[in-house]
Amino acid sequence: MNKEKEEELWKDVRMYKAKFKSDEYFEHLKKFIENNDYDKVFRALKYSDILKEIKEPKNEECICKFLKDNEYNIREKKILNFFTNIKNKKQNRRKINNFLNEVKILNKVEQEIIKLTEENISKSDFIVFDICNYANSLLYKMGQKIENSEMNDNLDGIIMILSRFLHDIMNDKKKIFKYKEDKYKENNYIKNTFSFYQDLYNFNYLKSIWKYGDLEIKNNYFEEIGEFGKNKTISQIPYLEKKEAKIKEFPIEIMLCSQIKEYFYSNDLGQKYLNIPIKYWIKVYILLYYLLLQFKDTILIPKYKKGEILKLLENMDKKIDFSKIRLPKGVDDEIKKMLKILFSQKIPNKYIEDILNKFVYNENSKDLYTSPILKFEKDSINYDVILPQVFLRTDHSRALISILSKNTSNDLQQKGDNLEKYIFTLMKDAKIEIIKNKKPEKSKRKEKDYEIDLMYIVNKELILVEIKTQKQTEDYNDFYRVSLKELKKYIGKFNRNINYFINNEREDIEKKIGKYDKYKKIYVSNVTYSLNNLDDVIIIDIEDFEENIKKGNYQFNNITELKNEKIKNISSLIEKRKIKFAREYSGILGYTTYCIKNFEK
């Protein structure tokens, strides 16, 4: 394998786990060891899910032996000597001892949680409805208003814990839960069951922090340190802030249309995602919201016989009269047009049924956000159940966008095309002559995958722009994939393409938009990065690009200073929050993690 392919291989964190203990793995690890780069060795071990491979390590010899026994070239004893060599220096000794201590304690905590869970939790179907009922009641007791970001995180936690419970209970053969009400209602068993899953959920989150970021133990808590978690939070804040403003100001119909328009960079409701026009996705979601709104002030959970939800939504759709819908002030004309299309056209029954089927929770479901309908069976009768307090409190735009953003190549390409068209329109409005989607000239078509999304010239400077739509990050794995794997890959390809066109097609470029004596490279993404520059490419988000073009800063002068100020302002919205386990495990009470500051909504 050549060096370039090898580097590309190890950019994918999954390879560390897939190739664990292989010759390739130890050859890769040995390079770090030979350079005495223990931080990279530890990170490689973390990526390899070392917690699952080594149980209860007592000291460094355990990991040394583990590595030595699996090293294909034992004679060199590089790995065996590694820990001894780096411990000669005081700071090295401290770091390796901290790492080994983290492994030991994390293993102990995980084993205690799993042991207690297995001893205390029944896998019977019959507790499923009671657990759902308990979670529904918890959300109801939180009150109808989410006053701040901490309450919002707690709400999200309850929904994700319940999702984890359902995922563990469900398997390939069990797609319908048995329904039996009140067997454990209001007793400690249900409360304890939920608390064990709460600890499992929180511990898995803690493991993600450790895998991708860094921890230290302080006052019986693991504390998140370092830049990875902070940068993940920075990437989330601009997106969440815009969404919060819309949720606060507008009802669900307007908020969903606005979010969909912004996320997909288009107001074309006829575009299809998962082979269904987007307007029908939005409308079915809104109709479900209307259906469950009657249960807003109660802990009751409605049960619908097979096909009943479909009929109810069909009838509701027939009765909606757009002319009687009063829109609040401040709604722009494009959103009004979208709403008119949405409510003036009835949904074909086929699409309602297709969408409802895609909303059913099964063994492949991500969570209750994307799959809110649960299947229950009682006395040989099947029921569809949607938990009202879960659905009504759901982050609706997150749920719908997550459903519509499944990685089908056509759908992702469509969203990318929408963003490019949006930017091309922006340049047209600024009256800037551009080359869009530049490909090699016909005589050089063998270089078929070489392309630059946007080129233009200002003051004899050629501006080359790469436009990418990426998944908004929800967790540490998302952020690793987007910020490290995807970003490096895209920028590497962008630089390759630029080198080709600068070296081979300068004459054609100058013929179309003018002569230049220097050039600048800009990478534009819908995701916000704290990183300013990578491999001589300036990295900005779509809001930065739009703002600078509208202000006439077509060359992006002083963009580093402007972005640094923006990231500084975003960073001021970050704080650490303490997450406490329901019970103590090996002296550990919980952990602290980076989060969005507890601002008032």
UniProtKB/TrEMBL annotation:
<dbReference type="InterPro" id="IPR011335">
    <property type="entry name" value="Restrct_endonuc-II-like"/>
</dbReference>
<protein>
    <recommendedName>
        <fullName>NERD domain-containing protein</fullName>
    </recommendedName>
</protein>
